[in-house]
Design a protein that fits this description.
With 188 residues, this protein is of the alpha+beta class. The protein has a single domain, classed as Peptide Deformylase. The chain is built from three helices and nine strands, in the order βαβββββββααβ. It has a five-stranded antiparallel beta sheet, sandwiched between helices. A hairpin with a 5-residue loop joins strand 3 and strand 4. The radius of gyration is 16 Å and the shape is globular. It starts with 5 loop residues before the first strand and ends in a 9-residue tail after the last strand. The relative contact order is 0.21.
């Protein structure tokens, strides 16, 4: 297993839809193991294959609830259904989100409170995840990556402009930018 470089906003792989996985091979299993290691080293609660430069419809996730119960897995070729969003502005304290591909920043973003995700796991077995709260947020965030959408693309106009200024100041928003968890002094 290896920690992989995480691509930063502006890299083309982050801004294009990912391809379906047609066969679960040893290379896919190694990729998923590396994704877990990278996600844990970052540290993050989710990681999509495009974030490590692989344009495939795969993401890993991990989260511990208030009681410390672990929730961890991988979804390959996911489909997402969600409850319609509640109208209104996001609460900056309760609905702020960050991203390993826009490291070190958080912005408020309204997400659906409940989702269902289906797909397959590394054994090709069906996966069905029905979650709410932060787990639902994680599923939506990672699913967006597979469609070439970063969370900053969904921000309101003022926050989007702020994110663009940050990206410009840091030299992001162009191909080839990445950071390596455990080596580079970045977090997201």
């Amino acid at each position: 297993m290896a920690v992989l470089p995480i691509r930063i906003m502006g890299d083309p792989v982050l801004h294009a839809p990912a391809s379906e996985v047609t066969e679960i091979t040893d290379e896919i299993r190694t990729l998923v193991a590396d994704m877990y290691e990278t996600m844990d080293a970052a540290p993050g609660v989710g990681l999509a294959a495009p974030q490590v430069g692989v344009p495939l419809r795969i993401y890993t996730y991990t989260y511990e609830d208030d009681e410390g119960a672990p929730w961890r897995g991988v979804v390959i070729n996911p489909e997402l259904w969600m409850v319609p969003l509640e109208p209104g502005e996001p609460d900056p304290d309760l609905e702020s989100e960050g991203c390993l591909s826009f490291p070190g920043e958080r912005f408020p973003l309204r997400r659906s409170d409940r989702v269902i995700v289906t797909g397959i796991d590394l054994d090709g077995a069906p996966v069905r995840i029905e979650v709410d709260g932060w787990r639902a947020r994680i599923m939506q965030h990672e699913f967006d990556h597979l469609d070439g959408i970063l969370y900053v693309d969904r921000l309101n106009d003022n926050d989007w402009k702020t994110a663009q200024k940050i990206a410009k100041k840091r030299g992001w928003n162009r191909p080839g930018q990445s950071w390596l968890p455990g080596v580079d002094d970045l977090e997201g």
